[in-house]
Design brief:
Radius of gyration: 27 Å
Structural class: alpha+beta
Shape: elongated
Order of helices and strands: HEEEEEEEEEEEH
Helix content: 10-25%
CATH topology of the largest domain: Jelly Rolls
Strand content: 35-45%
Oligomer: single chain
Number of helices: 2
CATH class of the largest domain: Mainly Beta
Largest sheet: 6 strands, antiparallel
CATH architecture of the largest domain: Sandwich
Length: about 200
């Protein structure tokens, strides 16, 4: 009987550890190949990253996934959903340029509160909680040049790399109490069967 109690204690302790661990997240990568890209945008073959380079022909260079134009791979928000991406912005020497990113709603208009504007060399990561939004949503990246592209003294050297664009949604863990109640019922069932077997063996 003591052995059963020891096994039960170890069993419940192990299960408590399993059920009380922090929730993991489901990650859905967004393929940048599905985005509209200007000519000076180079998207990696696997769609994991894109380099947006300044272009003498365009004041703005765009990489965009716009629901209003029926672009594929639109973003559908859900409970707890986080929109994440990494960026590495390099502004050319003596240039006056900006990197802009925003979430788009179904009409193609940017949603206030989900915008990023950078006007100096920097890098980092963005995490936007989009769980309160209603889809479908799009994502817009833009590199703006504010100098005269035909001025020979200006070098068109600004660029930005966008990578690891993804949606992360936390998995819902089983509450520890609920999990332990279920496992306790399983244990009781095993214990009852064990008693029946012991009675039959002792006859």
């Amino acid at each position: 009987m003591n052995n059963n109690k020891t096994i039960l204690a170890m069993f419940l302790a192990t299960c408590l550890g399993v059920f009380s661990t922090s929730a993991s997240a489901t990650v859905v990568d967004i393929d940048l190949n599905d985005f509209f890209a200007d000519l000076s945008v180079v998207v990696e073959a696997d769609g994991s990253s894109a380099k947006i380079s300044e272009d003498a022909c365009c004041a703005s260079v765009i990489l965009s996934n716009d629901p209003s134009f029926f672009d594929p791979n639109v973003i559908i928000p859900s409970a707890g959903a986080l929109l994440k991406f990494d960026y590495d912005f390099t502004e050319g020497t003596d240039n006056d340029d900006e990197f802009f990113a925003a979430v788009l709603d179904g009409s193609g208009l940017s949603i206030l509160g989900f915008e990023l504007t950078l006007d100096a060399t920097t890098n980092g990561s963005i995490s936007w909680d989009i769980s309160s939004l209603v889809g479908p949503l799009g994502l817009h990246f833009q590199l703006d040049s504010f100098e005269n592209p035909f001025d020979s003294s200006i070098h068109l050297a600004s660029m930005v790399t966008v990578s690891n664009v993804r949606i992360e949604t936390p998995d819902v863990p089983i509450p520890p109490v609920t999990g332990l109640m279920f496992l306790s019922l399983v244990w009781l069932n095993i214990a009852r069967r064990s008693r029946k077997v012991n009675k039959l063996l002792n006859k």
